[in-house]
Amino acid sequence: MIRGALRRLLGHPPSAAQMLDRAWRLGAAARGGPALSILPEGADWRAAPAEWIGFLAPQDRLAPHAAAAISAALAGRPDARLLFTDTAIARPGGPDPWLKPGFDPLMQEETGYAGRIAVFRRDLLDATGWRGSEAATVSAAARGLDAGALLHLPYPAVIGPERAWPASPALPAPRPMPRVSVIIPSRDRPVLIATVLRGLLEDTDTRGVPPEILVVDNGSTDPEVAALYARLRGRIRVLRHDAPFNFSAMVNHGLEAATGEALLLLNNDIEVTSPDWLAEMCACLARPGTGIVGPKLLFPDGTLQHAGVVTGLGAGHAGHPDAGSPGAALGPMGRLTHRRRLSAVTGAAMLISRACLEATGPFDAARFGIAYNDVDFCLRARALGFGVTWTPHAVLTHHESATRRRRTGAALRQFRAEKAALRALHATGTAEDPAFSPWYARRLRPELRALAALPPPRAFMPGDA
């Protein structure tokens, strides 16, 4: 009832100005919490009277009720040691909200986004010291903090000019490259399977370490496919999977046979379009704390198909919030141009470390034979502390429509059961994805929404940078 009244009052969806005004009005009701000292950037904090200390950069100013909202968010959180907020970017037509994800150590390393404003508990600041900028101080202070100590408050607490982020740096390929086992579930479709195999064997720079290619064949009858397998004998292995279609069971068949240090799940409708994609994914997987890596996927028309998966979208399940955007889209705050942590990535192209697989276990063929198996696997891995990374620097084309068929009958009933299982196991109907702002509606095409109350602070993403 309250949400409906807000829609009628503000319009649906609210504009950026309406969303900011709503947030600041909610901030006016904030009460309680510790005292704050907000100082000019770089000022000596040691004489500041408050337990919590923040720094304002030149040209930045506190938004309405910011101090009250921050203080109230810290009330009753004795383990908190660092909190950062959203930012409102000053523009000629009015401020524009920059709505941030929960703390992402990889994105912080590349962009320094977790500030404007950050507040530090005095003992943490005493231990860390000022590192020349708010971003560098946050990065240093965040190292070693546990989930309850590092919080993000989705409140636009600072108004100031836009500041360009540095370009996403190149990562050197691991030396030596790990041996990658590529698992390709497939059936018939000779043009598709020939394209993906050619891309792996001829168009991918593997840095002198050829991948182990395992095609898990689910009953192909096309003679062209049989001829292709015969031509490539010795370069690929074909594992016969003569059972009713179950994507997870096919993946598990390949994983059980794989011998590589890293395991790459690859749909048979993927096309390699640049040689360095696998080296980039391996470089990301080599980062400490990383268990899973996903690439940027484009549709054949060049629009974006996959830039990560957000849980809770699409009636409380999971979805690709940026799908359909131009392939070169920057995304909110330029996030689509930087590596970042996410809750999940698609199984159409997913690189998994051997350690992550052994800890997480196989894909769940009983509950997720058709859909959401990739989301379930990623969420189980995250719960164990493995980071899930998406990179814009590994780009592939996904001919998704070439293999997708409309679900009817038993397949539709199974799909509905798998949606229910995802909600039951991972609370995707109610839990807020830390990679996604609660100020966005939980739709497959996200838009701003008006909230009835300020969102609570939330913890950081798993995995170290």
From TrEMBL:
UniProt feature coiled coil, ranges: none
Source species of the chain: Paroceanicella profunda
Recorded hits in PANTHER family, A to Z, give: RHAMNOSYLTRANSFERASE WBBL
Could you give a GO molecular-function term held by this entry? Answer: transferase activity
* Cited SUPFAM superfamilies: Nucleotide-diphospho-sugar transferases
Q: List the protein's name.
A: Glycosyltransferase family 2 protein
Keyword set includes Transferase: yes
Database matches in Gene3D superfamilies? Spore Coat Polysaccharide Biosynthesis Protein SpsA, Chain A
Q: Which UniProt keywords apply?
A: Transferase
InterPro entries named among the record's database cross-references: Glyco_trans_2-like, Nucleotide-diphossugar_trans
Task: Please state every residue range assigned to the domain named Glycosyltransferase 2-like.
Answer: 181-297
Query: The organism sits in which domain of life?
Result: Bacteria
